[in-house]
Design a protein that fits this description.
Radius of gyration: 12 Å
Structural class: alpha+beta
Strand order of the largest sheet: 1-2-3
Number of helices: 2
CATH superfamily: BolA-like
CATH architecture: 2-Layer Sandwich
Number of domains: 1
Largest sheet: 3 strands, mixed
CATH topology: GMP Synthetase, Chain A, domain 3
Order of helices and strands: HEEHE
CATH class: Alpha Beta
Length: 80
Amino acid sequence: MAMQAQEIEDLIRAAFPEAKVTITDLAGDGNHYAAEVIDESFRGKNRVQQQRAVYAALKGKMDGPAGDLHALALTTKAPE
């Protein structure tokens, strides 16, 4: 089952309410997205820690072949 961009944004915003979140549907199929998440909580964390936090916010939507979200190209950073 495909996800809508707004569903992804809502899950991320629930964990990072002050973040700047940009979601892009890369293929138009509801399965391949890019997300940019800029949040102060990422300051001092390495990229892996930042991305793990965002994946955790997705609450299993990317888990295994039965996941609702097939691919997410993720960019994370603290505000400049």
